[in-house]
Amino acid sequence: MKLTLPAFIGRIAFSALAALIGAAFALPLLWFLFAPFNARAELGLAIPDPWTLSNFVTVFGNSFAVQALWNSLIQSVGGVILVGAAATLAAYALSRSSLPGKGAVTYILLLFSSVVSGSAAMVPIFLIVSAAGLIDTHLAVILTFAGGLLPTAMFILRDFIDSIPKSYEESAMVAGASPVQAFFDVALPVIRPGIVVVVVWGFVNIWGSFLIPFILLRSDDQMPASVAIYSFYSEAGTPIVTLLAAYSLIYSLPVIALYLFVSWKFGFRFFGGIKA
Amino acid sequence: MASVEFSNVTKIFGNFNAVSDVSFSIGDGEFVCLLGPSGCGKTTSLRMIAGLETPTSGKLLIGGEDVTHYHPKDRQISMVFQDYALYPHMNLADNIAYPLKVRGKSVTERHGRAKEVADVLKIGHLLDRLPSQISGGQQQRTSLARALVYPSQVYLFDEPLSNLDAKLRLEARGFLNHLQRDMGMTAVYVTHDQAEAMALATRIAVMDQGKIVQYASPIEIYRRPATTFVANFVGNPPMNLVPVEAVQGDGQLRPSADGLVLGGLAMSSGIGTALGAGKTLTLGIRPEHLSIAEPGAANTIAGKLFANENMGPESLVTIERPDGSRVTARIFTDDHIALDQAVKLSFSSEHVHLFDGAGNRIPADGETPI
Ligand SMILES: Nc1ncnc2c1ncn2[C@@H]1O[C@H](COP(=O)(O)OP(=O)(O)OP(=O)(O)O)[C@@H](O)[C@H]1O
Ligand SMILES: [Mg+2]
Q1: Mean pLDDT over all residues of chain B?
Q2: Does B164 touch chain A (CB under 8 A)?
């Protein structure tokens, strides 16, 4: 097929525009990859000369920053375990039981969940947590996130479980399994890909959050990395770009690692029922 | 093995009567088919035996014991599901041996027994595959193997062959028939395929709209269908049903319809009574009992040729009657018969079925009412 001249020019213009937009998005990413290895990094993009790990050495020398990464891990893993376990059990019950009004329950919870983790609820959350005597503890952050993420997690999982034929557990029970055995032997392995999705989603949410830990925590040794990033400022209030860059890269690695692990192990594929 | 008994069992979903006041019993070692059209309550009845559904009212007995409120795991049953319900994360050996696992058997015993059963079903070489890695026919046999891996009181089947192609279905049907003869198992088998029911069952329960219309041996159901519904459901092609009216002739009422001559039919008292009631009756005649009329045949039905299909050993000849209804005959000949436009089919009196205005069978004289 031959292109007419105007069409040809049009294509070139389109490609050029696309390349420009692509570059605009790529530049911050490139900065993100280059700056940590540049001892003289600034806000402008520059290829490190020479490449160095000195920024990382400084970061790991900062005990507050290292403790913060550890705190992030405690809060995220704790929250994810709670959300994963509770959402699985709740979603399974909501999907398989014949409770009247179970649909309404999920939708109402879903509606309120956006309130719980939203900034509008910060004052009541603070008051509740403080009344419970949990201010400045990991548990406060874990429970608050569990409350906020649970409804959506339940919703995602219930949808997933609804699409799995009941006959799996029914055949297990007919074969002699108790409902609990049928759940652990048959239902849980089939639901697992759905749980993995929820766990990854929950981890990313907690790992990246700033406001809730910032409000519920006080002491430096409880703060997660998302808050600790704000400590890389000079006395004058200007950011120390070199350290900020190195820390940001370290901070984003667990999430990237999690995605890679899950897609290697599960491929984000679902089993689904077999039917000829 | 054990008997199964339904005693006034009703199952209501919301305000829908899926099974209405059903009572029947299945003897020890019997193979009973629940046969009926879609939505008539077959699966619901089967699931109540399994304990996957609880009757709204009535009682269910297995081996004489009231199990109405027992959990499925306490009923000692096996079930083959229509979608097979093979566990996607377990290989075939673990799938087949799962009932043994929940019974706390050792791994060696489990795998030994799974191999034994799988070999009988010719899937012994597939034991370490996942269900997604085998064909539909092999999946069907795997689910059968899982049901047979341990001894049960009752074996339940919910249309286990419906996802197979025609050839595999015949093969599996033959195997099930053999298995039943071999093991003498008590089985309840749900199907809407009348040929499957005829081939497998010791007795068939024909269901319609949540009720059992007839419960009898296949041959009885074929020879003496209790209602026009059963007559129309069993047989391939199904029985021809011709509406007939009562007219005066020779000083007595006789059944009559356009193009229909019933010279040889003896008038039983039952027919007389039904005709006297002044309602329209239905005359039924199976396609295999019709043939091309020779001159002088006593009972005939006439119409114009509608279709003439050669099926190999037989031909299906369909005629259209003046009122537009059709009558099909199965004619067994070696050659494809050439027919004129006007066709007359004949039948012998003993093959005539008569049903009253409500569709119930009118027994011939000497026939015990069903
Ligand atoms: N859980 C349920 N809730 C409401 N209605 C139901 C439920 N299960 C079955 N029914 C209804 O009960 C009737 C009987 O269902 P059943 O599954 O027993 O039919 P079936 O004879 O097995 O039909 P098929 O040949 O299509 O499988 C149907 O009309 C169905 O819609
Ligand atoms: Mg069914």
Answers
A1: 90
A2: yes
Same domain membership, residue B210 and residue B308: no
**Does residue B16 have its Cβ closer than 6 Å to ligand 1?**
yes
Residue A104 sits in which domain range? Answer: 63-272
B98 touches A at CB < 8 Å: yes
Residue A276 has pLDDT above 60, yes or no: no
Share of chain B above pLDDT 70, in %: 96
Do B283 and B198 share a structural domain? no
Contacts of A189 in chain B (CB under 8 A): 87, 89
The domain that contains B80 carries what CATH number? Answer: 3.40.50.300
List the residue whose alpha carbon is closest to atom 19 of ligand 1: B39
Q: Provide the whole-model pTM.
A: 0.83
For residue range B116-157, what is the model confidence (pLDDT) as tens digits? Answer: 999 988 899 999 999 999 998 899 999 999 999 999 999 999
Q: Is the pLDDT of residue A266 over 50?
A: yes
Please check whether residues B334 and B255 belong to one and the same domain.
yes
B72 with A178: Cβ contact below 8 A:
no
Query: Is this prediction's ipTM beyond 0.90?
Result: no
Interface of A with B in 162-181 (CB under 8 A): 165, 167-168, 170-178, 181
Is B29 within a domain?
A: yes
Q: Print the domain residue range for B319.
A: 238-355
B40, B211, B213, B233: which to mutate for ligand 1, most atoms within 8 A of CB? B40
Task: Determine, yes or no, domain membership for A92.
Answer: yes
Residue B267 lies in a domain: yes
Smallest Cβ–Cβ distance between A274 and the set B78, B79, B132 belongs to B132
- Is the distance from the beta carbon of residue B41 to the nearest atom of ligand 1 less than 6 Å? yes
Q: Flag whether pLDDT at B182 surpasses 70.
A: yes
Residue of A nearest to B156 (CA): A174
Average pLDDT over residues A102-109: 82
- The DSSP line for chain A is -PPPHHHHHHHHHHHHHHHHHHHHHHHHHHHHHHGGG-TT--SS----SS---HHHHHHHH-HHHHHHHHHHHHHHHHHHHHHHHHHHHHHHHHHHS--TTHHHHHHHHHHHHHHHTSGGGHHHHHHHHHHTT-TTSHHHHHHHHHHHHHHHHHHHHHHHHHTS-THHHHHHHHTT--HHHHIIIIIHHHHHHHHHHHHHHHHHHHHT--HHHHHH--SGGG--HHHHGGG-B-TTS-B-HHHHHHHHHHHHHHHHHHHHHHHHHTTT--------
